[in-house]
Write a structure and sequence with these properties.
- Helices cover about 35% and strands about 20% of the residues.
- By secondary structure, it is an alpha+beta fold.
- It has two domains: about 30 residues, no CATH class; about 170 residues, Glutaredoxin (3-Layer(aba) Sandwich), CATH 3.40.30.
- The strands form three sheets. Strands 1-10-9-4-5-6 form a six-stranded mixed beta sheet.
- The longest helix is centred in the N-terminal third of the chain and has 27 residues.
- The two termini are about 25 Å apart.
Length: about 230
């Protein structure tokens, strides 16, 4: 199941979120053989639920990547220091990607704070073996200076973390590569999915995350395992 399909109804505007409902199908029969069959199915389902429960405990908010497109093409954006950055130049290392905008009142700072915890746990690996990239969802207003001020306000220090802006069409095209969309609301806020991605050295996704739910240590472990594999 695609990450965007799972969270299509969990888009957010400055912190509001709503998860899609769960649906359960019930099958009924009056025959004794059907009763026995239902009992066998129930036992099988209990086993599946137990396995699913264990998996969810291990990786809440973490999902296998099913998008095999190159999300780091030869397209140039501008970082928080006003310098051009070609996405293809980031290949050869792991890349952690999320999406924020500087006027976001609550959710984006939370996302950045969580990613900053990941960066702190990875330590010197950030910049050496993994790059963190935060694309703005509001390129119409987020200048490099605003992105730099946002990063400083979030306590982000050192290199290895790029805050990128560009033409609105560029941002929309990059979102489409991750199979995401943004929507401008009448009050100027931006509705978007709460998504983050671990991208491999070849520019293709390795893992995808619900960035508000996934444990920090899960992302760190995914990065560590991917670095070990090369």
């Amino acid at each position: 199941m695609r990450f965007t399909a799972c969270y299509t109804d969990a888009s957010i505007v400055d912190g509001a979120s709503e998860a899609p409902p769960d649906y359960v199908q019930d099958v009924k029969s009056n025959s004794f053989s059907s009763f026995l069959a239902r009992g066998a199915i129930a036992l099988a389902l209990l086993g599946l639920f137990a396995l699913a429960g264990c998996h969810n405990q291990e990786a809440v908010g973490s999902y296998a990547a099913v998008n095999h497109a190159d999300v780091l093409p030869n397209v140039t954006f501008t970082d928080q220091f006003g310098k051009p950055v070609s996405l293809s130049s980031l290949k050869g290392k792991l890349v952690l990607v999320d999406f924020i905008y500087t006027s976001c009142a609550s959710v984006c700072p939370r996302l950045t704070a969580r990613m900053n915890e990941v960066a702190k746990k990875l330590g010197v690996e950030v910049g050496q073996k993994v790059t963190i990239v935060s694309f703005t969802l509001d390129p119409e207003h987020d200048t490099p200076e605003k992105l730099r001020n946002y990063a400083e306000a979030q306590g982000i220090r050192g290199g290895g973390w790029l805050f990128l802006t560009g033409e609105p069409a560029q941002i929309d095209q990059e979102l489409a590569r991750f199979q995401l969309v943004r929507r401008r609301e009448s009050d100027g806020s931006v509705t978007h999915n709460v998504a983050a991605f671990l991208v491999g050295p070849d520019g293709r996704e390795i893992r995808q995350y619900n960035a508000l739910d996934v444990p920090i240590d899960t992302i760190v472990s995914d990065v560590d395992r991917s670095m070990e594999r090369g």
